[in-house]
Amino acid sequence: MHEAAPPVAPLPGAAACADDTPASPPLTIPDDADPTQDELRRAIAEEQFVLHYQPKVSCSTGKITGMEALVRWEHPLRGLVPPDRFIAQMEESGLIIALGAWVLRSACRQTRGWQAAGLGGLPVAVNLSGRQLQSDNIFETVAAALGESGLEPKFLELELTESFLVHDPEQAVATLTRLKQLGVKISVDDFGTGYSSLSYIKRFPLDALKVDRAFVRDITADPSDASITRAIINLAHNLKLTVVAEGVETEAQLGLLIANDCDMIQGYYFSRPVAAPAFEAMLREGKSLASDFISSQRAERTLLLVDDEEYILSALKRILRRSNYRVLTADSALQGLRLLAENRVDVVVSDQRMPGMTGVEFLRRVKEIHPDSVRMMLSGYTDLKSVTDAINEGAIYKFLTKPWDDEHLLANIEEAFRRKEIVSENRRLMRDLAQTNARLGQVNDELRGLLDDGALQVKRDEATLRVVQEMLQHVPVPLIGIDSEGMIAASNLAAESACGAAAPMIGRFIGECLPADLVGWFHGDRAQACDCVIAGTAYQVSSRAMGRRSASGGVLLMLDQTGVPA
User: Residue 558: in which H helix or E strand, if any?
Assistant: First the structure.
């Protein structure tokens, strides 16, 4: 049986909201009515909230690599209330501070509980509102949540909205920098919907950007949304940030995001937000994206043929049988766009004259949505002006005529695949190089930090040694520290005065500074104290072995004056 997650502490302010007055009667409010302040305060006092978790999934492995904690209100009459029905009112009233602190503690404790149960080290993301981030104690709130739960800071990701960054960039930089010092991750939610300046974005200590669902929704059909999403992914990677796409609901959206090197996805296609037991069940069963889908998006050479004449498609498929390609066919431009959305396609070969949309128009749209594809036209109809314009724009890589020569067509298609693979390999190498440089930078920073820490420790040790040495000089009892070789390693002023040393004793062997009978006792059995006379004064000398409570060694001699001999 696995270890259960620790119990979650009550909401801050819950005690203050509770008193000895009789309980109010249950509120009976229509389900579609906005919650009142009394309802919200009662919800906090009675801890009516619960967290649901939505997985984040890797686009390269298909496995769950993280989760986002999302708050829900378990209303006694309305049932489960989504956050868009109450968060705004809590923001306005300031109750969001108490709710946010509870969410942080609950998410951290649940995540630590899953780790203790052996379910992997998944990071949890928690949304912070603008009001929370502007509060004076946000740093202490996050630190307390980590401390109480025992969760390592690297497993907590704080998600903030873009509007917080642009409202007061200087305050945002200061706040995020301080939070970053805790060791937590920081990401920007709904990126692209605000008005943030890139000059500020590069200053924020961010780890990830989340592409807003508004762009993902029509990514397979709207060239503008596809371009914006691709631009955000490239921007994030150039800034060494991770990219998470929200609101992924279809296989076509997922395929296009994978083709554009998105790092992670989150959305209904994989899973809705679910209660903790259901999320734990997903972790235990190892739920992931279909491996064949992930691999097909990454490896297989795929060719799309678009022509409204069936016999042309059949003829092309026949001559391509000897080639090791995955061949898709479409009898219209719209069907071709749908197949492109659902599959990672390397090379597109299209006719020019088709109903609804010409080949040039189709390939222009393909260039906007799938710019990495290699686009070719195969047509017996030549509109020289439009084709030339498309070639000059880069929408068409090559124009081939009908009827075609089989060998010539195959050679051009093979060349197109090689071109695509070279470009893809160059992009991969550049991405790997950037990631390697980023890792090297982190290692260098860590090494520099270790060196700085080491240098600081040396300075501290030196300062401590000087303090100890000075303290030793003020001790009135003669003290002599001797190493294992019989050399004096430490002595105080009282010892040097007692021994009548004209020069410092440190660095000299005891035979040079101490009486012969004391040297003989030192090298013999020191179980009993030794009575000896040094410079005309009688002393009782005792010893203490060093190293019992430290890494030091040797012997400490203590000289206790007994009087002056007659």
Answer: strand 555-563
Query: pLDDT tens, 380-401?
Result: 776 666 677 777 676 788 888 8
How many Å apart are CA 544 and CA 168, to the nearest integer?
64
Helix 406-474, helix 223-238: angle, nearest 10:
40
Is residue 313 within 8 Å of 331, Cβ to Cβ? yes
Find residue 326's DSSP bridge partners.
302
Give the chain's radius of gyration (CA, Å): 37
* pTM of the predicted structure, to 2 decimals: 0.58
Contact 99, 155 (CB under 8 A): no
Q: Are 560 and 540 in contact (CB under 8 A)?
A: yes
**Count, residues in the chain:** 566
The beta-strand segments (E) located in 39-155 are: 49-58, 64-75, 79-81, 124-127
39-297 is classed CATH 3.30.460.10: no
Strand residue runs (E) in 137-229: 156-161, 185-191, 208-211
Where does residue 192 fall: left (phi above 0), alpha (psi -120 to 50 degrees), or beta otherwise? Answer: left
Give, as one character, the DSSP assignment of residue 323. S
pLDDT at residue 104 greater than cutoff 70: yes
CB 300 within 8 A of CB 326: yes
pLDDT value, residue 197: 55
Spans of all domains in the chain: 39-297, 300-425, 475-563
In 320-403 the beta strands, taken as DSSP E runs, fall at: 326-330, 347-350, 374-379, 398-401
Can you tell me which residue has the tokens 């200087």?
170
- 140 closest CA partner among 171, 112, 170, 181: 181
Give the C-alpha separation, 491 to 478, whole Å.
Answer: 8
- Three-state SS letters, 152-184: CHHHEEEEEEHHHHHHCHHHHHHHHHHHHCCCC
Q: Which amino acid is at 13?
A: G
The DSSP-derived string for 412-444 is HHHHHHHHHHHHHHHHHHHHHHHHHHHHHHHHH
Domain 300-425, CATH homologous superfamily name and number:
Response regulator (3.40.50.2300)
Q: How far is CA 349 from CA 103, 410, 439, 521, in A?
A: 53, 12, 41, 100
Q: What is the mean pLDDT of residues 302-323?
A: 90
- Residues facing residue 543 across a β-bridge: 557
Domain 475-563: which CATH number of 3.40.50.2300, 3.30.450.20, 3.40.1280.10, 3.40.47.40: 3.30.450.20
In the chain, the N- to C-terminal Cα span, in Å, equals 82
What single-letter DSSP state applies at residue 13? T
For residue 248 the two structure tokens come to: 């992924």
Return d(Cα 104, Cα 120) in angstroms, integer: 20
Q: What is the DSSP letter of 3?
A: P
Q: Which residue in the block uniquely carries the two structure tokens 């492995």?
A: 61
Over residues 9-29, the pLDDT tens digits come to: 434 333 333 333 333 344 334
Question: Catalytic residue numbers?
Answer: 246
Q: DSSP letters of 458-485? A: HHHHHHHHHHHHHHHHH-SS-EEEE-TT
| Alpha-carbon span 56 to 67, nearest angstrom | 5
Please tell me what DSSP assigns to residue 91. Answer: H
Rounded Cα distance, 523 and 531, in Å? 15
